[in-house]
């Protein structure tokens, strides 16, 4: 999980270097990121079915090795086209890893420790985007940009070997049919949506291409829901949205991801463009917040086990809203130390609130539907992060244009035209004023953007108050659950201990559970007490 998300953020730092290396335009080099994002949108929905078909542990190992191989190919790229193709190949296992890792956590970890385990799992979601700029900045500035890809190779190989030795076996279901229509509709719908969000700024948000992509995405995703409700073996069981705690948690996570990735995208730009820091120094400014989250998230998980998700989530989201509001006072003279303190305060809120929200939602879903819930959770995170960057970029651009227009009257009409002769010193002075004006406009637009992000977080507080209070109740596999879903929603790796045996003991002893004998450990998060 950490490796997959780290790769998404670490590449952002290398974009200017890649542009110079391959001699391409900014729009062209952005496809290194866009192609990866689009492929994730296609792969993630199919990952749950692949986990059912092949077995979670087998697919996990295959994805680790595939991600390492794709990363090695990216490091060997000889031009932009080859790098984009290799990034697409890398995104296939990169989209699978987060989807299959979450159900394995729920199948292996005892119920009373699931919060702490999810706290550790969540480190990849919020810490990786903060560490990425630091690590990427160092490698790009002092070593070689190819190492941002090569670094994944040994990590993937070691992870695959460790997983093969440690993880229990979760047999697949070879006979499960693939929902072709469902895959085509959701894959195409997400592709169109993510493409529109990625290229809206370049193509124009009101252009025919962008409006057409949005229209197609809405129609295809609506058709996907209709298909999944009708077919006997759906790709993803959309009935998981009947569980309000899960739906609410998904909405909350989406709100937090919009603010998280939007701020993480623009704060490094502020540090580099306005305050003149290098890529490494900008990354080091973001590093303390990652350390804060690394310390707090396991603690928040244990807190969830004791008191449930409502109060950790409410307190955490409130802190995020307050910290983001404080950050909207950024100016070109704001010290790095002050910004670090604001980011660390914001990290306290994310560290406390993020994983209790996610864990509380997944705990409300019956064991037989955890795979589908995990896939939807990842789709929401990927889409929300892309939406956050796209929407906040549109707002930033609009605010920048408005503020620059308001200050333009203060500058001479011929500021952009350098004169000849004795007037050169005077023009240089005017140009310095123009440059300072641009910096002020950037900081002012960023302040407006942060104020909007703070408002989104404040809205999230209301949703956090609707979460469950108290430890998770025992979930029976019987009458307590809503009517059973179609056959496709059957557990990926078996039943739910219907014979009354301690199937959790089989997992902890490393014995491979038989089909029909195990869905979750008897002491797992949904086991009867």
Q: Element order, helices and strands?
A: HHHHHHHHHHHHHHHHHHH
Radius of gyration: 24 Å
Tell me the span between the first and last alpha carbons.
Answer: 31 Å
Give the overall shape: globular
Q: Segments where pLDDT lies below 50 for 5+ residues?
A: 475-529
The total beta strand count reads 0
**Derived structural class:** mainly alpha
Percent strand equals under 5%
User: How helical, in percent, are the residues?
Assistant: over 70%
What's the total helix number?
19
Largest sheet: none
Mean pLDDT across every amino acid position:
79
Description:
With about 525 residues, the protein is mainly alpha-helical. Helix content is about 75%, strand content about 0%. It is globular. The two termini are about 30 Å apart. Mean pLDDT is about 80; it is low at about 475-529.
